[in-house]
Design goal:
Blueprint: E1 3-7, H1 14-24, E2 30-33, H2 34-40, E3 57-63, E4 69-75, H3 77-95, E5 100-104, H4 108-119, E6 124-130, H5 133-143, H6 150-157, E7 166-169, H7 175-193
Parallel strand pairs: 1-5, 1-6, 2-5, 6-7
Antiparallel strand pairs: 3-4
Helix pairs in contact: 1-7, 5-6
Length: about 190
């Protein structure tokens, strides 16, 4: 498999699962996600603690189901430029024969279709990383490095109208169990394609 694509809300356990996939897989995989790119950006172009617009990434307060409020990530001009370059970079890595675990928070099916078109030439396995809202909110508070209310917004948006090869739940399974389930499902898929 060229790409194992993990999609889930912040705090759902994608990074932990990715680490276990790297450990358990017989093939080497590079773990990458937009958070890696955000970590390389100059801090001054992002506003990840407040709510003001900027050229990088920033938060906007939004209304959610049941009158709740949450925060949705927004992209300024520089962030949009980087997001496009990030996708091209992943495509280039794949064209060079590097296997990837992509760690993403997708904005519903419209964004997933962009990824599917980009990754279409490669063997991809798409995985939904599920976690219940209460657990996501507890993890968000415990981490201390995420905008409070962002996981709630992502919970309602991230899997909207998306078809997956597999769904795993980090509330009912440990991250290593989820990684093992993913690798077993990939092996089953390979056997069925023979």
């Amino acid at each position: 498999m060229d790409v194992i694509f993990l999609n889930g809300a912040s705090g759902s356990g994608k990074s932990s699962i990715a680490g276990h996939l790297q450990d358990l897989s017989h093939q080497p995989y590079l773990h990458i996600g937009i958070d890696s790119i955000i970590g390389m950006m100059p801090a001054k172009v992002n506003n990840l603690t407040g709510e003001g617009a900027c050229s990088g990434f920033y938060w906007r307060e939004v209304a959610l189901n049941g009158g709740q409020r949450g925060f949705k990530i927004q992209k300024g001009e520089y962030a949009q430029q980087l997001n496009t370059a990030y996708r091209k970079m992943l495509q280039s890595l794949l064209q060079s024969g590097i296997r990837l675990i992509v760690d993403e928070v997708i904005d519903g099916d419209s964004e997933m279709q962009i990824w599917r078109r980009l990754l279409q030439p490669f063997n991809c396995f798409y995985v939904a990383i599920d976690c219940n809202l209460a657990q996501l909110q507890r993890r968000e508070i415990a981490r201390g490095n995420r905008k409070l209310g962002s996981s709630c917004e992502q919970f309602y948006r991230v899997h909207q109208a998306i078809d997956y090869d597999l769904r795993v739940d980090t509330h009912t399974n440990t991250s290593i169990e989820c990684a093992a389930l993913i690798l077993c499902a990939i092996e089953d898929l390979k056997r069925n394609q023979l």
